[in-house]
């Protein structure tokens, strides 16, 4: 993968399925975050998906918690906006796991405990960001 590819990659990666509402294809691309350089998106549909972050393509991609909202700021990872975000509304069921988290858009991600019971970083089983994935963006298979 190049430093900032303009396309999605259909890459076989492992994701943490502890709270995943989607079962479709998984697509991967680079992020601009050094703390979490890879984004995996598992599709429910082209407009509903589950987002995961990973430290490398060989690592398990983990859930993403939000410390000041419902994960709407995570839409920036797929080119969407907080204004168009719609989450599953089930964060109170998010299990206690390790994953990535942050408070606001643009902030680097940290890694540690997330989930409703053990932290103040909650996550949902899916997210809609007002953008279609892959949309018109090229998907590289290989």
Structure description:
- The protein is 0% helix and 29% strand.
- It is an all-beta fold and 142 residues long.
- It has a 3-stranded antiparallel sheet with strand order 2-3-4, with no helix packed on it. Strands 5-7-8 form a 3-stranded mixed sheet, with no helix packed on it.
- The chain contains no helices and 10 strands.
- A hairpin with a 7-residue loop joins β7 (97-102) and β8 (110-114).
Structure characteristics:
three-stranded mixed beta sheet, three-stranded antiparallel beta sheet, 142 residues, mainly beta, 10 strands, 29% strand
Please render the helix and strand layout as text.
Layout: E1 8-10, E2 26-30, E3 38-43, E4 49-54, E5 64-66, E6 86-87, E7 97-102, E8 110-114, E9 127-128, E10 139-141
Parallel strand pairs: 1-10, 5-7
Antiparallel strand pairs: 2-3, 3-4, 6-9, 7-8
Short description:
This protein has 142 residues and is mainly beta.
User: Would you identify the regions where 5 or more consecutive residues have pLDDT less than 50?
Assistant: none
Structural class designation? mainly beta
> Strand portion, in percent?
25-35%
Overall pLDDT level? 92
The H-and-E topology, N to C, reads as EEEEEEEEEE
Helix content: under 10%
Counting H and I runs of at least 4 residues, what is the number of helices?
0
How many strand units? 10
Judging from the principal axes of the Cα atoms, what is the shape? globular
Q: How far apart are the first and last residues' alpha carbons, in Å?
A: 11 Å
Major sheet characteristics? 3 strands, antiparallel
Query: What's the alpha carbon Rg, rounded to whole Å?
Result: 14 Å
